Amino acid sequence: GPGPTGHIQMTQSSTPSGASVLRLALALTAFGVPQAVAAQTIPSPYRFIEERQAVDLQAGYLVANPGQFDFGPKSGPLAGARWGILVGGTFAIEVGAWYSPTTRDVIDLERDEGDRRVGEADMQLLAGLADLRFNLVGDRTWNRLTPYVTVGGGLLFDVGGSQNADLLLEPEQRFSMGTSILARGGAGTTLILTRHLELRGDAVFQLYQVDTPGGWLQLEPELGPLPQDEWVNGWALTLGLGWRF
């Protein structure tokens, strides 16, 4: 019958060897570690911007205040273009221009109040701009967005010249836009569509001067003190499509 020696041989064959246990432990570790690492990975909403320059075309609307006597530019459509370069982690320098075909009222101050509008003239407003943009998230995007604030200035012209409606007034009473200083400040955001393509929208508050016609100053005894020039305000609301490079 089976003796002590046979019993010992059966026990040894049913016990896993040390090498088998080690291989099993390594296999379990290799299977579990990648899952644990993957579970701890959190995607960041921030992405760095590699391209430093951008050009874009804009379309929008100019919201304008015609001034105290309603002879300045009125609201109208707007189109423009700009180029910008990121000069640091946060700031960008931009230059550009916008154009707005709009109108203005022809006002005769010698007529009774409420009946001073004698016609309407076309205007071709052209602005040259230089702005400093401050990116709120630096040279990165947050969920593909780059919000910013901007401040700058420029010059505003009426390239349309005199109009037929102005002939209803004496020469010294005709309004001329001349060259006006433009001050600007606003905010907006850029949506990065692809590595090179972007969509950008902003709202910029603007201040500029309109000069009072010289002939109107002679009417001060009747109308009271008149300013030689007046600062008026407005908004440039734009949406642009740009290319980064």
Radius of gyration based on Cα positions: 35 Å
Looking across the biggest beta sheet, what order are the strands in? 2-3-4-5-7-8-9-10
The description of the largest β-sheet is:
8 strands, antiparallel, barrel
Helix content: 10-25%
Strand content: over 45%
Question: Which residues form runs of ≥5 with pLDDT under 50?
Answer: 2-14
Mean pLDDT: 86
List the helices and strands and how they pair.
Elements: H1 4-14, H2 18-40, E1 46-48, E2 53-64, E3 76-86, E4 91-107, E5 117-135, E6 140-142, E7 145-158, E8 179-192, E9 197-211, H3 220-223, E10 229-244
Antiparallel strand pairs: 1-6, 2-3, 2-10, 3-4, 4-5, 5-7, 7-8, 8-9, 9-10
Describe the overall structure.
- It is built from three helices and ten strands.
- It has 245 residues and is an alpha+beta fold.
- An eight-stranded antiparallel beta barrel has the order 2-3-4-5-7-8-9-10. Strands 1-6 form a two-stranded antiparallel ribbon.
- The protein starts with a helix and ends with a strand.
- The model is unreliable at 2-14 (pLDDT under 50).
